[in-house]
Amino acid sequence: MQSTNNMKHDLNAEPAATGAVTRRSFLTGLALGGAGMAGAAMLGGCAPQAKAPESGEAAQLAETGEPSFMTPPEPVAEADIVNTLETDVLVIGGATAGSITASVAATNGLNVIMIEKNDEARCIGRDFGFVNPKPVLDAGLPRLDPYELTRDHIEKSGHRVCGDVVYRFMTKSEEAGNWFTDKCATWGLHPEVQAYSSNSDFYRNYTHVINYYPEEGRSEDRYGVMKTMLSSMAQEVVDAGGQYLTRTEAVELVRSDDGAITGAICSTDEGYVRINASKGVILSTGGYGNNLEMMEDRQAWNQKIRIAAPGSGGNPTGDGIKACLWMGATMDPLGAAVTFNRACVKPDQTAGDGVLGRWFWFGEQPFLKLNLRGERFCNESGPYDYMLHSTIMQPHQTYVDIWDANHAAQAEAMDEVGCCRLFPFPNGAKNNIPMVVVDGMIEKLIEDGFVQKADTMEELAEKLNLPVETTVASWKRYNEMAAAGEDTDYFKEKHRLMSIDTPPFYGVRTGAWFLATLDGVTIDTNLHPCDENGDAIEGIYLTGNDSGGFFSVSYPNLMTGLACGRTMTFGRRAGMLAATGQA
Description:
alpha/beta
């Protein structure tokens, strides 16, 4: 068994036991990069845990009348601590937010220990939205107004966000984007700007997302590129004399008599280890999307539209958030999540947590969508989860996508923006997944009984278990409006209103692919958690989806890549604050 004292990465050594990483295994071992949602170093994870509810079960209540996740576990006994480590900064979570923070602190002269609960960090996003970074301006695109962006973001969030935190991102992300672009260049990665803004009338989309690629091999999988980013940042920590410890799980924050956080007690293969951090602890453990009790308590409505689709991105269970709540911090007033209408079920199933379905990337395209009564119910053209919010109001929180043989040409004409775009952008920038790959996905879904295919709409309705007469009537009505060039029911833009009249016809029952929770612990502009009086808890910084104040209700796609941009900007800020007191 690997000794805790030897868990510091010697990148020139031969392969070691689990818990240590060599140069060879380290540079290939970090997994998919992401949106700051899945550092997954869970606080409290090794202590006795409350039972997570089964699907549909209400959140468990402790004797206090509060959900049981609000009750902290018993402290780790001093006698059970087998070792103590000293550092300037302890970063808990090794994914996007954690690796950025650790790298910044280490390269600014601090001794850093970064820990990761799993064998490797896992996260999924790779689109970076910054406000006015140099690559965007160099592409000849207009400079955006941070005031206008702040105003629109606050309005789209129902004013349930912290305006100071939002504005801090809007005004500081330019600097962060330039810094990150320069850093990527040292790793052999160069920016590619998706030079495009949505021409949808339904919502505004301001920014031009940046992706990073090697100079050669522009077709390289972007998850692989993110893996390079994560491993390179962690490498900087190790090169600066710090440590990156895997299979090391923070289970308890340590607090001094004056209330400041001074370190954490962690579980390792050898036993419990205390890590003292003289300059601060930085939490980047991700949200709580896989904690069913927290989901039922915080946002039960999103559980109703959720379909479990195989994917990646870690296993965030809210342990960093819980640890902050246990020490008196507060949380955003409303649950929020980023959800994509890109998951599907079979014709005899409906959406809802616990239902196992499939990934359905094509679902984001604004084709005809009907509820299970066979009725159209919304404007299908809108950002990400807006349509899914409409679905919550429908029977069984499930709807049906319908398209025809012309779907590829129509999808190109619909001119989507962001990660659901299936064709290159006007400036030649790559889209995430090409249409030809999506067609292959559809064929596999047909083979496996998810997507249905038919020569008539009547036959398709029967295969999807929809009322035939109502479905056909809704379809005919849609085609009539498309022919007339005006959606007088839900006012979809003309360029996304096209007749579905060429067999074969296709359909599938659809719901939400759940990407991440977005509500978090209340923070100030220095990223400290705040108590109910609004006072900061010193000695600790929150980054990524541990932190709150930025999103509410939904993920408003005003800025493609906003989640990654926020994570990068505030991750860098946390590292700078810990290192210099300035950011």
